[in-house]
Amino acid sequence: MTRAFVFLVSFVFVSSPLAARAQMFEDIGIRAQGMAGAFVAVADDATATWWNPAGLATGAFFSAVVEYDRLEETREGDLPGPSPEWRSSGGGISVVFPALGLSYYRLHIKQIRPLDSTAASSASRQDQGVASPGVSSLEMSQFGASVGQSLGNHLVIASTLKALRVQSETHGDFDVGAMAAFGGVRLGLAVHNVTAPEIGSGDAVVELPRQARAGVSLTSAGVGGTDNLTVALDADLTRTPTAVGDERHVAGGAEAWMFGRRIGLRGGLSWSTVGDARLAYAAGGSVALLRWLYLDGEATIGNDRARQGWGLGARVTF
Question: pTM for this structure?
């Protein structure tokens, strides 16, 4: 089991990512966003299909999540040239059965080009919503099927097979994940876009870099009057290009459940370890409308333009 986990970690470091796109782990997951993105070693609901498919084996018997995310994009002054403020939305639906997860996500991808690119100044570009020379946006749909395999009593290895569609072109790709659990302590590792695919053509080409993140979490029952308390720490192992520069996040967050798991509160902080310090502060909560139905919400603020926004979701779990 230890050898398998070490092999997966080694694969991340020897596989050099292509750095040309902006798609982050934090783009999906209301609970995860409420913990500032410290979720790779938590991933115990249907958003495990995005965050870490190995979490399928550690969560509820059945889970389904529907969510909507509103993201704030670049503003005036973030980049050279005119850059009026504008916003984008995303979200999706995911369903997890025992040992199987199905998901659909619609993502807003910011494309980054050199400022002297002829494509950036072309009046006939295919992509929509141009923010400034060198930056444009595209919508991408992702269909996924997640499966996993337990290796002994403590380790799960899993993968999400993906069909990615931009405009009229579709490509296949996959994510991989690992989760090791020892009592209340869990170790997680997830790698997105293993094949680093290129989708589309001409001005609308989308290149998704390989991304990796590792995390650790600790869950304990009955702490400070809570039903249970989870604290988590995540760290990106690769850089992610965004419209405001490369980022490599470190995130810490906590989640507390109270009143018979009818109320959940979350908070966290993340920062980029690349370039100038860019901080993001997140907070979120859940309310149980029924014993198996939750309404989730989160908001993220700070000086990290790539992270600002809010999201709402509904979650079924039993």
Answer: 0.84
